UniProtKB/TrEMBL annotation:
Residues 50-130 form the Carboxymuconolactone decarboxylase-like domain. InterPro entries: AhpD-like, CMD-like. GO terms for molecular function: peroxiredoxin activity. It comes from Actinomadura syzygii. This is Carboxymuconolactone decarboxylase family protein.
Length: 185
């Protein structure tokens, strides 16, 4: 897994560049994550309207989605691992702890859906994430296994969630978003 290298291509904005409302949102998000205002948020907020639209959309997936939070974090962490996106991975390790993702789960995520210890539902979800990442599609067998555990609506949400975090990994990497400062360190 790699960290974003070099200097950010777009520096995270301060209050003047992103506006007072967006700055406040960034500060609140940082407190929730145990960091300063997240560099990703401060970077995206340079396009104020886009940031607010994205924030609303992203919030409908996490934390406001219908999938259990633990599963949501497993999906995000698996995508971040597959994409080698250290920023996304580290951020969601911190958030995942509160959702019941333990250190042993994080290590198993690196092995994949066939690692010992996953429930059949978690295996199906993680296998779907792997398929979406590798093939940008789901094989019929993966879909059948997924549908044995998730409703149609949950399958839609899972596909959008995985695709959204693939997109974020691309943005983070392309813009060279740097790691957040963890509070207390």
């Amino acid at each position: 897994m790699t960290a974003a290298s070099g200097v950010p291509r777009v520096a995270p904005g301060g209050i003047r560049e992103i506006g007072a409302v967006n700055w406040l949102v960034c500060r609140v998000a940082g407190r929730a994550a145990g960091t300063g205002p997240p560099n990703l948020f401060r970077t995206l907020a340079r396009r104020r309207g886009l940031f607010r639209g994205w924030l609303w959309f992203a919030g409908r997936l996490m934390p406001g989605g219908s999938l259990p939070r633990r599963e949501t974090e497993l999906v995000i962490l698996r995508v971040a691992h597959l994409r080698g996106c250290r920023y996304e991975f580290d951020h969601h390790v911190r958030l995942g702890r509160r959702a019941g993702v333990r250190e042993r789960d994080v290590e198993r995520l690196k092995e994949g859906p066939h690692a010992a210890g996953w429930t059949p539902r978690e295996q199906a979800i993680l296998a779907a994430v792997d398929g979406l990442h590798a093939d940008r599609d789901l094989a019929d067998g993966a879909w059948t296994r997924l549908r044995a555990h998730l409703s149609e609506g949950e399958c839609v949400e899972l596909a959008v969630l995985a695709g959204h975090y693939e997109m974020l990994a691309t943005v983070i990497t392309a813009l060279r978003v740097q790691p957040d400062r963890v509070r207390g360190r």
